[in-house]
Amino acid sequence: SAYETVLVEKRDKVALIQLNRPKALNSINQQVIEDLNKAVLDANADNGIGAIVLTGSNRAFAAGADIKMMEPLSFSDTYMGGLFNDLENITKAKKPIIAAVNGFALGGGCELAMMCDFIYAGEKAKFGQPEITLGVLPGAGGTQRLTRSVGKSKAMEMCLTGNFIDAQEAKQIGLAAQVFPVDELVDRAVAVGQKIASFSKVAVALNKEAVNAAYETTLQLGLDYEKRLFYASFATKDQKEGMSAFREKRKPQFTDE
Ligand code: HXC
Hints:
The protein is α/β, with parallel strands linked by helices.
């Protein structure tokens, strides 16, 4: 692999990125952040790729930030160094990222999964924000994305107790979109990625951008934003192609223009 801590595999139109730091349950350090960002950036820039699947191992998606690395840090180390700021860079990708979570997604691991566009969970997955047990708090979206995703009561319970939830509960509260058997999870996520990759890349990116806008703004501004993007989609060749293919009862040939 071109990277120290991630493995990248191209499966047709999907880039499968696998966190690979098994000795520390894929816990996140600077190397992981660098490798992950580069792998996502490369996939995002690759015209042959239409979707990205991010996964870990069967035991752990990621067990959080690297606790042994963090232990000696001071306030000024973290503040001036912008600890974990760069992890957010993967959210800048135009192409959708599906998190395929087997095993532990804890702390920064749960936060990383929530930075992805949606989450599929394997039956044995465990999600949690155990930072409270370490005398800290989530630092990459655990108090913010989780609250927007599952509401205040559940997010508050998870952050204040550090308790883990299982895959079924994650699905029930809307954190995970679907649950699959452990051995099928990655293939199912890749198959959904292939489906997404069969559509116009521009339309996919517009859909992603519009849904993400719902996190940032009020309903009326979000509806206005959606309308702008919807109207903009009529400037694409793929809109003409998609609609003429419907009328002619044939498969569309999208060119991403
Ligand atoms: C560093 C970690 C680690 C972590 C596991 N390991 N999690 N090392 N940082 N976050 C290491 C262990 O030290 C051990 O190595 C090896 O991985 C296997 O873990 P075990 O604990 O022996 O496995 P097990 O008994 O199965 O327990 C699994 C576990 C537990 C429940 C996931 O490891 C655990 O609680 N990990 C910490 C989870 C956590 O608190 N995460 C939040 C971190 S704070 P050695 O060599 O010691 O045997 C955070 C802040 C986010 O994420 C900030 C923004 C990104």
